[in-house]
Amino acid sequence: MNQVSATEEVFRQDAYAKSCDARIVEVDGAGIYLDRTVFYPTGGGQPGDIGELILESRSPISIVDTRKSESARGIVHLAQEPVDPSLVGSKVSACIDWERRHRLMRMHTCMHLLCSLIPAPVTGGSIRDGSGRLDFDLPESTLDKQALSDALNRLVTEGHRVAPRWISEEELDSNPSLVRTMSVAPPKGQGQVRLLEIEGVDLQPCGGTHVASTAEIGKVRISKIEKKGRQNRRVNVVFEP
Predict the structure, then answer these.
(1) Distance between alpha carbon 91 and the CA centroid of its chain, in Å?
(2) Could you tell me the pTM of the whole model?
(3) Which CA distances in Å does 77 have to 127, 171, 210, 232, 237?
(4) Is the residue at 224 inside a domain?
(5) Contact predicate 12/190, CB 8 Å
(6) Do 33 and 25 form a contact (C-beta atoms < 8 A)?
(7) Domain, as residue range, for 72
(8) Backbone φ, ψ for residue 171 (5° rounding)
(9) Burial 131-149 (b: 16+ CB within 10 A, else e)
(10) pLDDT in tens, 126-135
């Protein structure tokens, strides 16, 4: 069974939260654990957040990555260098690099749009600052860069509402078509599974952060379609300037 995170995940309830008040509950070298956080940890192809922890009586601590702990300790915020253990118990303001996070949210939502346009299982993917890619189980390349770009931008400009919702694990088991990824199964063990719904376009399990409307994504372009193996096609997406 999956462990429940010891960190309150503010970003799950509000992906637009740029900061939150928190308390340092543990320090492990350069790793800092908070009782609550707006920092998204690396997962689902989305990079972990960066930013700062602002304290009352000393210089801010720069956070260069955020990850899920392998234990039940929660989310670990990685500083540039080891942190003074005496800071345990200190109050902080946890502040993410919002501009970067927002670009990741826009691209992550765009990946869902791309997935909706290609009727094939997803074999992998990743999101970066300003770009993203999905790999599809396709034996032959029938994809056209311009046609896909046009279709993506049509969905963007239509301004579809984007919102999470939850279903039971039993409901997911009875609707296996909701799961598009071949290599990664949705996390189970807590009774419910989080879905990301783009109204009228896409519905699938996802724990990442997303924008509230496809219109917020902005103009995008398919930059490259690559053959990666006998039955694998990689589709790369970038933001248009």
Answers:
(1) 27
(2) 0.91
(3) 20, 34, 21, 35, 29
(4) yes
(5) no
(6) yes
(7) 8-96
(8) -65, -40
(9) bbbbbbebeeeebeeeebb
(10) 999 999 999 9
